[in-house]
Write a structure and sequence with these properties.
Largest sheet: 9 strands, mixed
Distance between the termini: 82 Å
Number of strands: 9
Number of helices: 1
Shape: elongated
Strand content: 25-35%
Number of domains: 1
Length: 149
């Protein structure tokens, strides 16, 4: 058998391997796939992994809770200290947080309190219920407001 006769076989194996590399065998998994959602809230995560978050989820306080979806309502999990909002047209609700960074636009964020805010997007509203006015670290967008309820 010559090497020339093995070339078509090697090509077929390579094509089959490439075609099947994205396939998944039905096996139990601890996390939902990217098309599944465990709750009706937006895809958001403390590590920007895109997993869905439920309203009673506890997060690692050192990791930011990142929201990448748009056009939905999101509840910030209890215990979260840092929030990053990359999406747009969101309604975000939460308790006491230390820092909010908003890169998206046309978002309405309502929290109990916040200490520091930063904006790169435009037309965002942050409302807080308690405490002193947060320090605006940066605002390179336009028409962003921070008000006390």
């Amino acid at each position: 058998m010559s090497l020339k006769s093995l070339v078509p076989l090697a090509a077929a194996v390579a094509i089959s391997s490439a075609a099947l590399s994205g396939c998944v065998i039905n096996s139990p998994s601890s996390s939902p796939s990217s098309t599944e959602s465990s709750s009706p809230t937006a895809a958001a995560s403390p590590e920007a992994s895109g997993s869905s978050a439920s309203s009673d989820q506890k997060t690692d306080a050192s990791a930011p809770f990142t929201i990448n979806d748009s056009g939905t309502k999101v509840r910030i999990p209890d215990g979260t200290t840092k929030v990053v909002i990359n999406g747009s047209n969101l309604e975000v609700d939460g308790d006491d947080v230390t820092e909010i960074t908003v890169s998206g636009s046309n978002n309405h964020i309502d929290v109990d309190s916040v200490q520091h805010v930063s904006f790169t997007g435009s037309n965002n509203v942050i409302e807080y219920d308690n405490g002193n006015a947060p320090h605006v670290m940066s605002d390179s967008g336009t028409n962003n407001t921070v008000t006390k309820n």
